Amino acid sequence: MEERIERRRDRGPKIVAIGGGHGLSTLLRGLKRYTRDLTAIVTVADDGGGSGMLRTDLGMPPPGDIRHCMEALANTEPVMGQLLSYRFPEGSGSLTGQSFGNLILAALNGITGSFEEAVSEMSHVLAISGRILPVTSADVKLEATFENGTTILGESKIADFKKAQDCRISGVRLIPARPTPTAAAIEAIREANLILLGPGSLYTSVIPNLLVDGVSEAICQSDALRVYIGNIMTQDGETEGMTLSDHVSALLDHSAPGLVDLCLANCSSVADDVLERYREEGAEPIRVDREKAEALGVEVVERPMLSTATQYARHSPDRLSQVVMELYEERADTKIF
């Protein structure tokens, strides 16, 4: 079995996965079984929690989303995985709540003098499957504008501000605008056979990558199969009340028509007890309004992808990656599996 998986990985396509947060790491956990040529391009707009503290104190890009991806792709002893995800408990002084993995990246950033190089060095230490690239090395902040005309600066402040305004986000932008991308990220997009956006927070994990100079243009110009992976649920403080077509429309409004070929949506039913917990925060399964989404020029494909291993409505890494690879095989010019 292991030998067959290794042969499959050797023949796997060049895959680029773009996003951030837990959604991207979930996708990566499954995809690493299918190819050795896997690149994660990760947002660096986070300014909350331990990442925000390191960003403020050390002037480095936030390491949190990068660390999640490293945990997903690492091929190390279990104790190393535990170290990466370890958070210092209450009562640890200035370290309270900080992740040990973040501190390793901060130390490497100081040693190498470059966040991109720090990520590369840590990737070698952890023997990760593929590559992890920050979308930009610039010190960027995320600003959201709401339908009532108000704005808020700072990714970590958006959710609470949205609840206070009680209206939808109309758009987000990076400050400074259109920062320079990492050269390796653009190169990876141009060489990819399969480009995936999401799953993950629409306005704070996926879209910020498209606001970096040249990223959306490179995706639009690519001959790769380009897929947006929709979330299973709307997100508290970000996308309440939004349908699948609303998500696709927001994605295109922040990039360009023709960004993606298809949108992959979940069709598994969410258990009643799980739904009840989400209702308490105003979240619900994203409604697949196929006709409106396809009127935007994006094909909609529905597949069952819900995880049964958690009490939350999240994608199964194995099922999601399997569906993605099935779609790629169906639509690739040359069969490779």
Could you explain how this protein is built, in words?
There is one protein chain. With about 325 residues, this protein is α/β, with parallel strands linked by helices. Helix content is about 45%, strand content about 15%. The protein has 15 helices and 10 strands. The protein has helices at about 1-10, 20-30, 50-60, 65-75, 80-85, 100-110, 115-125, 160-165, 185-190, 200-210, 215-220, 245-255, 270-280, 290-295, 315-330; strands spanning about 15-20, 40, 130-135, 140-145, 150-155, 170-175, 195, 225-230, 260-265, 300-305. The strands form 2 sheets. The protein has a 7-stranded parallel beta sheet with strand order 3-2-1-7-8-9-10, sandwiched between helices.
Summarize the structure.
With 337 residues, the protein is α/β, with parallel strands linked by helices. It has 15 helices and 10 strands.
List the defining traits of the structure above.
337 residues; alpha/beta; seven-stranded parallel beta sheet; three-stranded antiparallel beta sheet; 10 strands; 43% helix; 15% strand
Q: What's the N-to-C terminus distance?
A: 15 Å
What would you call the structural class?
A: alpha/beta
Low-confidence stretches: none
Described by strand count, sense and barrel closure, the largest sheet is:
7 strands, parallel
- State which percent range the strand residues make up: 5-15%
Compute the average pLDDT. Answer: 92
What's the total helix number? Answer: 15
> How many strands?
10
Helix content: 40-55%
Secondary-structure element order, N to C: HEHEHHHHHEEEHEHEHHEHEHHEH
**What is the spatial order of strands in the main beta sheet?**
3-2-1-7-8-9-10
Global Rg = 19 Å
Shape: globular
Oligomer: single chain
